Amino acid sequence: MNGLSEDIKFRRILLKLSGEALMGGREFGLETETVGRIAGEVKSVLDLGCEVCLVIGGGNIFRGIEAASQGLERGTADYMGMLATVINALAMQGALERIGVHTRVQSAIPMSTVCEPYIRRRASRHMEKGRVVIFAAGTGSPYFTTDTAAALRAVEMDCDALFKGTQVDGVYSADPHKVSDAVRYDSLSYHDVLTQDLQVMDASAISLSRENEIPILVFSLHNSGEFANVVKGQGRFTIIRKDG
Hints:
Elements: E1 12-17, H1 32-46, E2 51-56, H2 64-69, H3 74-98, E3 103-107, E4 116-117, H4 120-128, E5 132-136, H5 146-156, E6 161-166, E7 171-172, E8 184-185, E9 187-189, H6 190-195, H7 203-211, E10 216-220, H8 226-231, E11 237-241
Parallel strand pairs: 1-2, 1-6, 2-5, 3-4, 3-5, 6-10, 9-11
Antiparallel strand pairs: 7-8, 10-11
Helix pairs in contact: 1-3, 5-7
């Protein structure tokens, strides 16, 4: 593993991506160019000396909540969504390994033919060796989102922060694409997010992060180099932490 750069703020981090982040200009599925670009962003942070793990959603392939609302039994729908996250994890693994980044996929639902089972100590050891670990299949249980899975894995991996890559450069009071005068926040407390019902991550993910005092940094995936900038405390982002 590379030596730790002096200007980075976090040693071990978890990056949470939505499945939609992998679609690029498509309406469904994966865009290879976009997956490759994000892999390059991850490599740039790894090159700073950070230890990195990822959780990726599956909404670009299947959304369990939407399917459940249309009559499919919720538990079954959620398991289908978990399988979609495995597809995305394998795609990201392929993109990372094409650029020389050693990567392991660990699934909360055992499927030994395609990836490792989730084992906390093994995952931590992979990261110590400079490998990127991608956690797939959410928590392995229905009724939990990949946001909650990201917060849970960040706690289990003893991460210094949880990074959420989004479509905008931080947290706003409303969707800035729809509300022209939406207010952007530089920092918030966990309490602010919960009481104002800001749509950053679901309430259980925020609560779990608060209980374990893991800061959440929200930034835009669309700006090249922004992930590395935010790791160094630069660029544009919103930080959510105990004292705001």
